[in-house]
TrEMBL record:
Domain Aminopeptidase N-like N-terminal: 15-209
Assigned protein family: Belongs to the peptidase M1 family.
Record keywords, A-Z: Aminopeptidase, Hydrolase, Metal-binding, Metalloprotease, Protease, Zinc
Biological process annotations from GO: peptide catabolic process; proteolysis
GO cellular component terms given for this protein: cytoplasm; membrane
Protein name: Aminopeptidase
Phylogenetic lineage: Eukaryota, Fungi, Dikarya, Ascomycota, Pezizomycotina
Cofactor(s) for this UniProt protein: Zn(2+)
Pfam family, one: Peptidase_M1_N
Domain (ERAP1-like C-terminal) ranges: 540-855
Organism annotation: Talaromyces atroroseus
Active site: 322
């Protein structure tokens, strides 16, 4: 079936099996290699041409073997833009089964896409054949999603052209090769010192999930507790030599999660092994290659007692997310990239479900509301957003869809649906879906059908607008005696929605709480523009129980104030949602900043980290937007100081042994908030501890959980001495999270000269391309520095873009994180005109988001500045 809305390969050749052999790897030299790929395929109509995908590959020779004849390709032409090669054969190929034989050459690149090499500093003596340059060594690995398998070998690189794969590679004898499947055999290579490693045949799978790696690897291993066909499955975490001791935490997560998902989905983990590989240069966080999941270092390594506990939470989640894909994505794959959300939205939701199962005390659904819901609803309140299911005509456009809409709005609407159907029913439907489409491809409609069957409800009808329409609603409540009327409208943070942008009627589960018990809930849904709900308790009610619905609630102002006095009746998710909604409504103009601040004042006694995290984010946004007005900025600072002082003085500085994770994180957050708000005692103590550590007098003066806070405060309150000391630490530490923490802290300096130095550092070889966005995000959050970042980008654009252009994920992220925090229309215009004549293909979506965010901030500032100032002054701040 041909799809008019997809720009795909001609529908003539369908591959069923690939045998790939790579040899003559020029390790440490030219980095070239020779490959052969033999593709079993069926040809559906007579043709003299075969078109397949290649990128940065030269086809040396191609030949078709069919029946007893062989037909040579006489011409090979390349289309660089569409990343295709056309093989023209000397004779017509008859329909039927053929073997397509291709010899090619390619390069092991540094792009973190395709087949790449990654430079690293070895902490112990590596094996002698490890490729080397100066004090650096190299490991090799692949990253094929979305469209880069074609950069490693010629292939039919589309998610629904599934096939089986045999893989063989020739490498030095003392290195290790990994693939999706276990090693089948090893034999001597073509030269002394080389071996050829071959791997077992994979199940039927998509090209983007194929992977291999080569390096001086070591591993830690565990076995699943569950038995699969009578035996446990080996689970290994591979690192380059010297790092495996930091792999145990991820290992423990991984083997338990495999058992958990096998049980949850009612389908055994489909492969005979599961490897995790730590990759030194990695553009995103992790990649779910079937049986060989790759990770950036900070998403898999944890140094007990030395790493910030926050990274445990991250690792547990990333591991679960990627393992969820082994079923959802790998076993059953979206038919085409327009349904990417199926993969990513689901893996996000079920990843958190697994973490919640193993760590109920982490309260991850509150974390979800404070982080994921917040970011999804923020992006989706811009005109620059897009529907969850998005037309992707050309697969090369899909890179920019790996965004908060696919992941976070996608998982938020899944959470809403699961909470409506009941989790058991929901999982039953998912399991049926996975079983029905195993080793195949499926669509959103296939999932809805399975869920409809499992639940007896017409899921498609009420989920459709959530998936196919842009945006989400705000429900505005009006009160009448013992009843309320509710009305839905599209929510835009610019607050200026036009009638033609407000035509969607969403299905909205109202989840009205009327007391603290779970029985006190009205499970009505709003299915029209407006409606009346009767029998409402006037003393207390709240919509959107646990913030499971993907919408905002706009209460009359007296009701919001009342809710603020009844916080004890609310769940943690409710409280986070209440603050988040109030903050967003202040931005759009449907609420006010004074109402938000009055609500927040009521949280002084709060003890939950995740509630504080939402408060902190909301206040930080005010500080960003109103930074240009000194009086407002100072008053906001004193608001924050008064709010946080009792809490920070209660929680103190020490981490008692055995303390729970959330309390530890709360301490870190409160100290940071108090310090930023100018709390003198906190700043003095942060300086004292820094001093002890910096001078070497007491290397343990800074608790591992407090490095980001203490470094950050000392950089922002201090000057060159502190900056130089943290920079020195950045350059010399081999702690994986330590590097990230130092880099981020350095961006908090207020000294323009140091900002320049920092920018030079960020764009030097001391900062890996994959981490450049950490610098951008840090400067963008710093009101004294964000315009210097923009200045730097303009003055050094050639260098900046050369450095970032090798990888689209990296480039897009840099532009978006670096520029979205301004609140001056003038800057938006400057940005627009600067990029006018540039090739912005890799990040055009980011630019629209940047423009929209700045406009929203500017409107907000202009509308509220005066009102906010009056309120702050009237309240003594
Ligand atoms: N499939 C993605 C990896 C990916 C991202 C490939 C972008 C191509 C482009 C993977 O499953 C993923 O979602 N990784 C996340 C981390 C995850 C835990 C949210 C990432 O890399 O950010
Ligand atoms: Zn994913």
């Amino acid at each position: 079936m041909a799809h008019a809305d997809r720009d795909t390969l001609p529908n003539v050749v369908k591959p069923s099996h690939y045998a790939i052999f790579l040899a003559n790897l020029e390790l440490g030299g030219s980095w070239g290699y020779n490959g052969t790929v033999k593709i079993d395929a069926s040809v559906s109509k007579p043709t003299k041409e075969i078109v397949l995908n290649v990128k940065e590959i030269s086809v040396v020779k191609a030949e078709i073997q069919a029946a007893s004849t062989s037909i040579k390709a006489v011409d090979i032409s390349y289309d660089k833009v569409s990343e295709r090669a056309t093989l023209s054969f000397e004779k017509e190929i008859a329909p039927g089964d053929v073997l397509l034989n291709i010899e090619f050459t390619a390069t092991i690149n540094e792009a973190m896409a395709g087949f790449s090499r990654a430079k690293y500093k070895a902490t112990v003596t590596p094996a002698s054949s490890t490729p080397k340059a100066d004090e650096f060594h190299y490991m090799l690995s692949t990253q094929f999603e979305a469209c880069d398998a074609r950069r490693a070998f010629p292939c039919f690189d589309e998610p629904n052209l599934k096939a089986t794969f045999d893989f063989e590679i020739e490498i030095p004898k003392d290195l290790v090769a990994l693939g999706n499947m276990p090693v089948k055999s090893e034999r001597d290579g073509s030269k002394e010192g080389l071996k050829i490693v071959s791997f077992e045949r994979t199940p039927v799978m998509s090209t983007y999930l194929l992977a291999w790696a080569v390096g001086d690897f070591e591993y830690v291993e565990a076995q699943t507790e569950r038995k699969y066909n009578g035996a446990s499955i080996p689970v290994r975490v591979y690192t380059t030599r010297g790092l495996k001791d930091q792999a145990y935490y991820a290992l423990g997560c991984a083997h338990k999660t495999i058992d958990y998902f096998s049980e949850l989905f009612g389908i055994d983990y489909p492969l005979p092994k599961s490897d995790l590989l730590c990759v030194h240069k990695f553009a995103s966080g992790a990649m779910e290659n079937w049986g060989l999941v790759t990770y950036r270092t900070t998403a898999v390594l944890f140094d007990e007692g030395k790493s910030d506990a926050r990274y445990k939470n991250r690792i547990a989640y990333v591991v679960a997310h990627e393992l969820a894909h082994q079923w959802f994505g790998n076993l059953v794959t979206m038919d085409w990239w327009s349904e990417l959300w199926l993969n990513e939205g689901f893996a996000t939701w079920v990843g958190w479900l697994a973490v919640d199962h193993f760590y109920p005390e982490w309260n991850v659904w509150s974390q979800f509301v404070a982080e994921s819901f917040r970011q999804a609803s923020q992006l989706d309140s811009l005109r620059a957003s897009h529907p969850i299911e998005v037309p992707v005509k050309n697969a090369l456009e899909v890179d920019q869809i790996f965004d908060h809409i696919s992941y976070l709005k996608g998982s938020s609407v899944i959470r809403m649906l699961s909470s409506h159907l009941g989790q058991d029913t929901f999982i039953k439907g998912v399991s049926d879906y996975l079983k029905a489409h195993a080793y195949g491809n499926a669509t959103t409609n296939d999932l809805w059908s399975a869920l409809s069957k499992a639940s007896g409800q017409d899921v498609n009808s009420f989920m459709d607008p959530w998936i196919r329409k842009i945006g989400y609603p705000v429900v505005t409540v009006a009160e009448e005696p013992s009843q309320i009327s509710v009305r839905q409208t599209r929510f835009l943070s610019s607050g200026d929605v036009k009638p033609e942008e407000d035509e969607t009627i969403w299905w909205i589960p109202l989840g009205i709480k009327t007391g603290s018990e779970s029985a006190d809930i009205k499970l009505q849904a709003l299915t029209s523009k407006s409606d009346t709900i009767r029998d409402i308790n006037e003393t207390f009610y709240k919509l959107n129980r646990d913030q499971t619905g993907f919408y905002r609630t706009n209460y009359p102002s007296e009701r919001l104030a009342k809710l603020g006095q009844n916080l004890h009746l609310l769940s943690t998710e409710d409280k986070i949602g209440l603050v988040g909604d109030a903050a967003a409504l202040a931005v759009s103009g449907e609420g006010t900043t004074p109402a938000l601040l009055a609500l927040i004042e009521g949280f002084a006694q709060e003890t939950n980290y995740l509630v504080w995290s939402q408060i902190s984010t909301s206040l930080a946004n005010l500080q960003t937007v109103f930074a240009g007005n000194e009086t407002v900025a100072t008053a906001l600072k004193s608001f924050k100081l008064k709010l946080v002082t009792p809490a920070v003085e209660t929680i103190g500085w020490e981490f008692p042994p055995g303390e729970d994770y959330l309390t530890g994180q709360l301490r870190k957050l409160l100290i940071a908030m108090a310090g930023n708000a100018g709390h003198e005692g906190i700043i003095a103590e942060a300086k004292r501890r820094f001093q002890l550590w910096a001078s070497g007098q007491d290397p343990s003066a800074i608790h591992s959980n407090l490095r980001s806070t203490i470094f950050g405060l000392n950089i922002s309150e201090g000057d060159r001495v502190e900056f130089d000391r943290v920079k020195e630490e950045y350059l010399k530490t081999d702690s994986v999270d330590g590097k990230e923490i130092c880099l981020s802290s350095l961006g908090r300096t207020k000294n323009p000269e140091l900002v320049q130095e920092y920018l030079d550092l960020v764009f030097s070889d001391h900062v890996a391309v994959q981490d450049v966005h950490t610098g951008a995000a840090s400067l963008a959050a710093n009101s004294k520095a964000r315009h210097l970042l923009w200045q730097y980008m303009k003055s050094n654009w050639a260098a900046v873009s050369t450095r970032l252009s090798s990888n689209n994920v990296v480039f897009e992220r840099f532009v978006r994180l670096g520029l979205a925090k301004f609140s001056d229309i003038g800057v938006a215009e400057d940005i627009k005109s600067f990029f006018q004549d540039k090739d912005t293909g890799a990040y055009d979506r980011a630019l629209v988001i940047v423009a929209d965010s700045i406009r929203t901030n500017a409107r907000y500032k202009d509308r509220e500045e005066q009102l906010l100032l009056e309120w702050l002054q009237a309240h003594g701040y």
